[in-house]
């Protein structure tokens, strides 16, 4: 099984460099795009985790409260 490349490995990969050059994309723009995607991915994961934690909390709370 292959692991994902690190940002450093992506930026040093000769094939990726050739594709970027052919597409007219400079290294800095590409690195910034990857960083932006990384932040969005993390933010979405954190939001999902917050929602799951809140759901779990309220489910547990509902089981411990005796409604009259």
Helix content: over 70%
Helix-strand topology string: HHH
* Number of β-strand runs: 0
Question: What distance lies between the first and last C-alpha atoms, to the nearest angstrom?
Answer: 56 Å
Question: Helix tally?
Answer: 3
The helix/strand class is: mainly alpha
Alpha carbon gyration radius: 21 Å
Shape: elongated
Main pleated-sheet profile: none
In total, how many domains does the architecture comprise?
1
Which percent range describes the beta-strand content? under 5%
The overall pLDDT, averaged over residues, is 87
| Uncertain residue segments | none
Give your account of this protein's structure.
By secondary structure, this protein is an all-alpha fold. The chain has one domain. The protein is 78% helix and 0% strand. The protein has helices at residues 7-12, 14-22, 27-64.
SSE topology:
Layout: H1 7-12, H2 14-22, H3 27-64
What are the salient characteristics of this protein?
68 residues, mainly alpha, 78% helix
Short recap of the structure:
By secondary structure, this protein is mainly alpha-helical.
């Amino acid at each position: 099984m292959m692991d994902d490349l690190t940002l450093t490995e992506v930026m040093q990969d000769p094939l990726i460099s050739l594709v970027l050059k052919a597409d007219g994309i400079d290294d800095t723009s590409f690195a910034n795009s990857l960083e932006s995607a990384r932040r969005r991915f993390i933010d979405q994961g954190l939001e999902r985790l917050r929602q799951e934690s809140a759901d779990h909390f309220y489910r547990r709370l509902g089981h411990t409260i005796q409604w009259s």
